[in-house]
Amino acid sequence: MASIPVKQTPVGQPAESLEEKFQRLAAVWHRAVAHHSSSRIRDNHPAYREITALGQEVVPLLLRDLERERRHWFTALAAITCANPVADEDAGDIAKMTAAWLRWGREKGSGIANISLDTQRTCD
Length: 124
Prior knowledge:
The chain contains six helices and no strands. It is mainly α. The protein has one domain. The two termini are about 30 Å apart.
């Protein structure tokens, strides 16, 4: 299994921010799986799973990346938020899935930067 580079923080330097960590992991993930069509391979990559483990704080970054880069964060968003805004008939249509998640983000917060989620919620 691929290892994920860990950024070493020199003594006296600030720790890696959430956005820096997300960008680093997203780049590792993208380089490793961009050529795969299998969502199973993409969604089970260690960097993707580490991004998902960052929890609700990463949701605005996922939505922004989905909007700008069109990378497939659907599984991570669903796992973190317990939401599924994609209509059954739109499953598999990347453009419609993207639109549904971005609409969900706007409805949950003022734009995609300020999403408020219930931290006590668990997915069924």
